[in-house]
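Reviewers of the previous submission asked for a worked example of the structure-prediction workflow described in the proposal, so we include one complete record here. The input consisted solely of the amino acid sequence. No template or homolog information was supplied to the procedure at any stage.
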Amino acid sequence: MSQYVSRLGSGRVAPRLRFPSGLAGGHRKPRRVAMLSVHTSPLHQPGTGDAGGMNVYIVELAERLAAIGIEVEIFTRATTGALPPVVELAPGVLVRHVDAGPYEGLAKEELPAQLCAFTHGVMQAWAGQRPGYYDLVHSHYWLSGQVGWLAAQRWGVPLVHAMHTMAKVKNAALAQGDTPEPAARVIGETQIVHAADRLIANTAGEADELVRFYEADPAAVAVVHPGVNLDRFRPVPRGSGPLHPGGAATARAAARARLGLPQDALIPLFAGRIQPLKAPDVLLRAVAVLLERDPSLRSRILVPVVGGPSGSGLAKPEGLQKLAARLGIADVVRFQPPVGQDLLADWFRAASVLVMPSYNESFGLVAIEAQAAGTPVVAAAVGGLPVAVRDGVSGFLIPGHEPEAYARALSRFADSPELVDRMGAAAAEHAQSFGWDTAASATADVYTAAMCDHRRRARSHRG
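From that input alone, the workflow returned the following structure tokens.
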């Protein structure tokens, strides 16, 4: 089996796939994985509450792992008493609802106090199974990692952890007015980094941050790019056949007709959770700059904001609407509630460009989804976005968060409408390398390596 390495900015090397000699020939992948997602359920609608890219990640990864013979049971906190204890998400994928704290009204910041109750629920589910039922624990986000650390030790299996976001990284690039991540999270993440058998990073940059900020062992960090559902996110809807040359404009026109959007408008789209971290205000300020410089654009621009308040954005749920009014652009901004994945794909197809001015993104799944749908992206050059977006080819990367810089990028699409089609075609081609099947296969290899190392250490301790 080939080995891949990702070069870290610090000069150290983090293996993408690291196997002891002879692993490929005689070591098996896990039969069943306990996947932990404490604070947000894979059944929740992305874009609502704390549900976002991580939800999509867990669902897509679990389904693809099941398709290659690895059963997945996802433990998540029950948020209503009407939920059945176990739901089959897909063949080979179960969602187990754990009672931990009140069903409603519990903010993510209050969940650490419920980790004991959640752990108890996980242990109860495990106690009803035969010995060795789970081969491995894969935890997502630091809250899950705290539970996974204990579960893996109790069951005698390896722990694989995905951070998704990191407190130290977020605090180093905090949006104005946003709330810093608490010290308890920093401590919890540090514990998990040193307890996990493997850490999965979305990009080499994230792997470097794990080493620099948390002193992770480079040999324990595996880089696996997330994927995109290429059947759902494509330039034309499923069942529409292939995209013919010159068909991008036709596909965009059809999507706009379905959504009731003007055919000849410049449509810069924001899609995601509305909170300071995602910086939708930067897009609105950029549009205000654009219209001040060219008032004639007002009759042919529409700015959809698709998503709901989340995190610290819940403190001012109407803040973005009020900002649009203060900037004098409320007439060109359309606020839309979060939508399902199929309808989201249509919003991407209809848009001229997706705008992601985030202060931090561990990868930026939305950017890949939009590109797969044939839409270029203007994004902040942070986190994993320089991997997700090919600067100057599938979109533009903007250093910093100055509205004027985003206005200049948007003006290029306004001045040269053909740029939408040209960059959109390049974006769709770029996204083809990010399929979930590839991500699941690489993740399964990380699991296999973690199990092999774990067994070897267990044998050495017995000896």
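Confidence is low (pLDDT under 50) at residues 1-26. We consider this example representative of the routine output the project will generate in years two and three.
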